[in-house]
Design a protein that fits this description.
Number of strands: 9
Strand content: 5-15%
Radius of gyration: 33 Å
Structural class: alpha+beta
Shape: elongated
Strand order of the largest sheet: 2-3-7-4-6-5
Distance between the termini: 31 Å
Order of helices and strands: HHHHHHHHHHHHEHEEHEEEEHEHEHHHH
Helix content: 55-70%
Length: about 650
């Protein structure tokens, strides 16, 4: 048998150990390759969004590659650590350091090349489906044809082969520093009694709880700076929850005799304490990776689904025109005729209304509310406009009262208006009692806010203020006529007439979220699969020690059924604990997102978590069956 055959047999006989690692690497290659195909697809180059798409894909490729590099480095180190005893035996049998290093590099090269070839083949198989999804998400209106780029293949092969080889050399360099005896000992080390600090445990719980509070009470503006505080608290807090608080919890359960001495709990909790201590760092890393996957997927999917409701939130009217100055009234009337004629020709149902308005500015001793531009509406005209747009009407106003309408999103971050404001600074000021209200018009294109006054007061504004005119159209099921509404908006806009519509914001929001969703969802899944693979590596790494432990339990009288029950519960605890902690982390991130959106994120987040739970559960069943089959096989060997 040649040295290469010996190396190949090593990989072949450790197929189960390398399977999860191989599949994760292959998935990274698949995603990287399919994104690369999109970059070089000739039909995509004809679209206006090609620059944005290329920028997003390049950023995604960089993230995938860097993460894959770190993941492969960790995975290779983990496998070498689990096989140290094997390498120690080879060393004592006379294998040289050069041969051992060569064997490790060849093994990793075989796995790397296999995952690259398999990834490209599977990626090529699913490229057509990927392009179909790409077309639907970005709304191109047509499905791109199947296309394989040799440039995409070459870039994928070169970069990933380079990555596997560099990682192999790095791992070999770390192994070279170990002594023969240390290598021979392998991953085994004497167990010390797990210790913890109540102070650190309480501080970790406090850090996580406070980060939850910050997320729960955040909004669009505060999240911009709270995000960094939350990350600075949640990452170390999660780490110490697993390294300290989890041990404190199991120690507490050991002191509760009614729990600890019930059935198999004594064996489960005692051994679980050591397992939590041994795997605390890994579990915290898996939790963070899973939380990143859940949060990014949920946020992207939630935003992707929220385009319609967010457009209605920020743009209250389906379509509007606004002009300033009496001299532009005739042009506005002509534009309205053209727009309504276009709506009729396009068979777009609508109700419309044109009303007078006044543009003016405020006068106040408070600098924040001095010289603030507003668009003023009369009470009767405003309620007619609300009736056309099926919005809530206002209650009657006194002649000295006014309702100041501001954007609800930004109102918490601007100084509240004074109880009284004066208007029309140059020609005869009008002082009014101010009531705050939520903006319900598109009329703030020219002015910072809208002001609703009584009809009598509005007559005074018309005499002294600068006249303006506002046109609004209510279009039932406006989202079905987005393209036509945008055409009408573009045709009506000029230097004197300002057109606004929900369709414009909807298109911009939908396109940007489509790009982010398309680029981010596969990266999130990659993070999650990597987290599952890391758990698999750790289970496999300690399986020989666990087999010896369970064999000892078997010898003192436990049945196979009881051992399976103990093993299943411990695996389930270690496997699902980081998952559910990550779900709690993500739930507060979803709450923060909900605080920023008008639409509900409950259903999208449930879809995302359910999807990940199904994948995680399938992965758990696979690992559990593999683990129990090894225990059963070891028990049979011992019986013989």
């Amino acid at each position: 048998m040649t040295f290469r055959q010996f190396t190949f047999n090593n990989v072949k006989r450790n197929t189960r150990a390398y399977l999860s690692y191989f599949l994760s690497c292959m998935f990274a290659v698949i995603v990287f390759f399919m994104y690369a195909v999109v970059i070089f697809h000739p039909e995509i180059a004809t679209y206006d969004f090609i620059d944005a798409v290329k920028t997003g894909i390049v950023a995604s490729e960089v993230i995938i590659y860097l993460f894959s590099f770190l993941f492969v480095l960790y995975s290779t180190s983990a496998f070498i650590k689990s096989r140290k005893k094997e390498y120690g035996i080879l060393t004592t049998l006379g294998i040289s350091k050069f041969q051992l290093n060569r064997m490790l590099i060849l093994e990793n090269t075989i796995i790397g090349l296999t995952s690259i070839v398999a990834g490209i083949l599977v990626g090529a198989l699913f490229t057509k489906l990927f392009l179909m999804i790409f077309s639907v998400i970005l709304g191109t209106g047509e499905v791109f044809s199947f296309y394989l780029s040799w440039k995409a293949i070459a870039i994928t092969v070169i970069l990933f082969f380079f990555m596997f080889e560099i990682n192999s050399l790095l791992v070999v360099l770390t192994l070279r520093t170990k002594s023969v005896m240390e290598v021979f000992r392998g991953a085994h080390s004497p167990r010390k009694k797990p210790r913890f600090s109540w102070i650190i445990s309480v501080l970790a719980l406090a850090a996580v709880t406070y980060s939850y509070y910050l997320a729960y009470t955040s909004d669009l503006i505060s999240m911009m700076y709270r995000m960094f505080i939350i990350l600075a608290l949640i990452i170390p807090g999660t780490y110490f929850l697993f390294t300290q608080f989890s041990i404190a919890l199991t120690s507490f359960l050991q002191r509760r005799k009614n729990i600890f001495y019930k059935r198999l709990n004594l064996l489960i909790i005692s051994d679980l304490t050591y397992k939590l201590k041994d795997n605390a760092k890994l579990l915290s890393m898996v939790t963070i990776l899973s939380a990143v996957a859940f949060t990014s997927s949920g946020v992207l999917y939630g935003l992707f689904q929220a385009a319609e409701e967010e457009s209605e939130r920020f743009v209250p009217h389906d379509y509007s025109l606004l002009t300033e100055g009496e001299e532009n009234k005739a042009e506005l009337d002509e534009t309205i005729k053209e727009v309504e004629s276009f709506f009729h020709e396009s068979e777009i149902p609508f109700q419309s209304l044109a009303i007078p308005a006044v543009k003016t500015s405020s006068v106040s001793n408070k600098s924040e509310w001095d010289n603030v531009e507003v668009i003023v509406f009369g009470f009767s005209d405003y309620n007619k406009m609300m009736d056309v747009n099926q919005q809530k009407k206002l209650e009657a106003l006194q002649h000295n009262e006014a309702i100041l309408l501001t954007e609800a999103v930004f109102s918490p971050y601007i100084p509240p208006p004074p109880k009284k404001l004066r208007f029309i600074p140059e020609k005869g000021q009008i002082e009014l009692k101010i009531k705050p209200g939520k903006n319900t018009t598109n009329a703030t294109t020219l002015g910072g806010s809208a002001l609703v006054v009584s009809d009598a007061t509005f007559d005074k504004f018309q005499k002294h203020g600068e006249k303006a005119f506002y046109y609004t159209a209510n279009i039932p099921n406006w989202v079905h006529y987005v393209e036509k509404i945008e055409q009408a908006e573009v045709a009506a806009s000029n230097d004197t007439i300002h057109a606004g519509s929900r369709a414009d914001l909807y298109t911009s929001f939908n396109e940007s979220m489509s790009y982010l969703f398309f680029f981010g969802i596969f990266i999130s899944v990659l993070f999650f699969l990597a987290a599952g693979s890391i758990l698999y590596f750790r289970m496999y790494q300690g399986i020989d020690k666990d087999i010896a432990h369970y064999y000892s339990l078997y010898r003192i009288g436990l049945t196979n059924k009881e051992m399976k029950k103990i093993a299943t519960r411990q695996i389930a605890f270690l496997f699902f604990l980081p998952f559910f902690v990550a779900v709690i982390h993500a739930a507060f991130a979803y709450k923060a997102l909900q605080n920023m959106l008008a639409s509900s994120v409950l259903i999208p987040s449930m879809y995302i978590i359910s999807f990940y739970f199904i994948v995680h559960f399938i992965n758990f069943i696979f690992i559990r069956n593999f683990y129990l089959s090894r225990l059963k096989k070891a028990a049979r060997s011992s019986a013989l």
